[in-house]
Amino acid sequence: MLRSLPLSRSVSTLRSAKSQLSSGIGRLSPHTFSCGSGSFLTTTCGLTLLDFTSGIGVTNTGHSHPRVVAAAQKQAGRLVHGQVNVGYHEPMLDLIDGLSEPAGPLACMASPSFLPGPHADGGRPHLFFWNSGAEAVEAAVKLARHATRKQGVLVFQGGYHGRTLGTMSMTTSKNIYRAGFGANLPGVLVAPFPYVHRYKEHLGGGTEEEREERTVDFCMAQLDLVLSQQAPASDIACAVIEPVQGEGGYVPAPASFIRRLREWCTKHEILMVADEVQSGFGRTGGWFAMDHYGVSPDVLVFAKGIASGFPLSGIAAPGSLMNTQPPGSMGGTYAGNAVSCAAAVATIAAMQDEGMLANAVARGEQLRGGLAELQKRLPIADVRGLGLMVGVEFEPAAGGIAGAVTQECLARGMLLLQTSVYDTVRFIPPLNVSEDEVKMGLEIFASSVDAVLAKKK
């Protein structure tokens, strides 16, 4: 556990500064964080909290991983900002090499796009770096529109892609992200996502495999209906999907759906864009969730966990796609910042050397197993997820307790987030979380649910 630290600012000063922040920011707790180490955060009041949010899937190596901190400190002493439109810098080139090694993070990008183009790069993916997940999604849409000369963007119900004007228009996980902000980006089409737990009440019972098969069949039929009712394939540039929905409830897509979607996109010459902003960099136990499905997207979007908290995002695509863009059509002042790239190189090395992906698989099994045991006595409707991206959806009869449960967890020393329009909480521990820490988290969660249910009686 972390030791308490002395207050660096007066309570009145902190309160004044907090009042000046935008009211549009939602926030789980009123705490001011002072420092963090591994799975724990410490507040300015000396309170230590088990962090099962990881900055919403960002600090995958835990807070202030020594290897990442050392790399960032060293780079900051050499070069903080090497602007990408002016020249190259070494950390970015090192990062490209690390991402593109044969068994590295971008191994899922091995297949070429359907578009014609040169492949002199030997099939190695081409990359563009930016700052945030939303920016990277927008970069993917720009690339798809420019390369295909088509405008339509197909997204899936319950998806979350960001809060900029463009990505907000693509987001359907909650209406809070769009309500009151005026006209949306034109050309966005919406199709159903195969949320098996929710579709079973409409598509009938049977075994889990039968329910999944019917759900996938229904959603594929709806994709064909989109082409008949909303826009022809000749107008659709790309289909953007989260293989595991984040804000939509931590819902993994069935493997058969992802594979059939890949075939459908290829058939209709629609680019398949995998939004792995939240599911990437070890979160699901593979480098990317697409590793579990055995197919390659045309464009892969990444952010969050790549640099352990330093702002960095990007897209990867075959050269046949990236090479369609003329010089000057992409860029950004802070795109691929040198310190962030150095932190990303260290992050990937730490994940590899310390076996974090294997730990994510093992601890994910422990977490889902413990939650499945709690499901036997608590009003839990569904436990789902891949690796350490785990969602728990409560029964409707519980009366909407997810928000109260997260607040009770906070009171008992753990940060846990609500998600989805359904009554769901999500577990996002760091990938190097220990067995004892997962056990601690399960105990806090169980006692918190019990306490909330007792108050409702």
Concise synopsis of the structure shown:
With 457 residues, this protein is an alpha/beta fold.
Explain this structure:
InterPro entries: Aminotrans_3, Aminotrans_3_PPA_site, Class-III_PLP-dep_AT, PyrdxlP-dep_Trfase, PyrdxlP-dep_Trfase_major, PyrdxlP-dep_Trfase_small. Keywords: Pyridoxal phosphate. With 457 residues, this protein is of the alpha/beta class. It folds into 2 domains: 11-19 and 27-64 and 355-456, Alpha-Beta Complex (Aspartate Aminotransferase, domain 1), CATH 3.90.1150.10; 70-353, 3-Layer(aba) Sandwich (Aspartate Aminotransferase, domain 2), CATH 3.40.640. 38% of the residues lie in helices and 16% in strands. It has a 7-stranded mixed β-sheet, with helices on both faces. The protein has a 4-stranded mixed β-sheet with strand order 1-2-3-15. Helix 7 crosses helix 8 (208-229).
Which CATH architecture of the largest domain is right?
3-Layer(aba) Sandwich
Helix count from the secondary structure assignment: 14
Strand content: 15-25%
The total tally of domains equals 2
- DSSP summary, beta strand count: 17
Average the pLDDT over all residues and give the rounded result. 92
* First and last CA, distance: 35 Å
Q: Radius of gyration from the CA trace? A: 22 Å
InterPro entries: Aminotrans_3, Aminotrans_3_PPA_site, Class-III_PLP-dep_AT, PyrdxlP-dep_Trfase, PyrdxlP-dep_Trfase_major, PyrdxlP-dep_Trfase_small
Organism: Tetraparma gracilis
Pfam family, one: Aminotran_3
Protein name: 4-aminobutyrate aminotransferase
